[in-house]
Amino acid sequence: MRQNQLTKIEKYTFAGSTVTRLFLQRNKIAFIEPGAFHGLNLSLLDLGRNEITTIERNTFSGSSIRKLSLYANKIEIIEANAFVDVQNLQDLVLVSNRITKITRDVYQFPGLKFLHLMDNNISKLSVADFEQVSHVRLLFLGYEDYLRRYESYLRESES
């Protein structure tokens, strides 16, 4: 479903689907209704290169997503608990957006191992923001760091 003209994903759009990888990148998606992916068990959900500006609370509620990619959108706001009730989320890719602030409730769930934040407008991170996130194994903030560690990540995920 990549490279189509999709602009919105409504609640329960994929209800009953048994798909395990969903590629929705390069559409014109600007809005995702909370519960749109309810009931899905995905190893990958790719929503890259769309027009998303806000991730609302419970957008991905009721789903199981191992890797969620939201790269190259126009995300400025990630509401509190936007990823609450997402089972098995291990890898969250927020690269190349317009995020200026990241709060701990965005990444404070136990299964998260990889958080990709490079190429955003984040100007300040405090120690307090990351005090209780020992479960995050890799935090990608800058381009050089990202390239170096991404190769290592790819090798690890292949095994």
Helix content: 10-25%
| CATH fold category name | Leucine-rich repeat, LRR (right-handed beta-alpha superhelix)
Low-pLDDT residue intervals, each spanning 5 or more residues: none
Quaternary class: single chain
Which band does the percent of strand residues land in? 15-25%
Mean pLDDT: 84
Following the backbone from N to C, one meets helices and strands in this order, namely EEEEEEEEEHEEH
Tell me the count of domains: 1
Secondary-structure-based class equals alpha/beta
Give the second-level CATH assignment, the architecture. Alpha-Beta Horseshoe
Membrane topology: Single-pass membrane protein
Keywords: Cell membrane, Disulfide bond, Ion channel, Ion transport, Leucine-rich repeat, Membrane, Repeat, Signal, Transmembrane, Transmembrane helix, Transport
InterPro entries: KCNMA1_auxiliary (IPR051432), Leu-rich_rpt_typical-subtyp (IPR003591), LRR_5 (IPR026906), LRR_dom_sf (IPR032675)
Subcellular location: Cell membrane
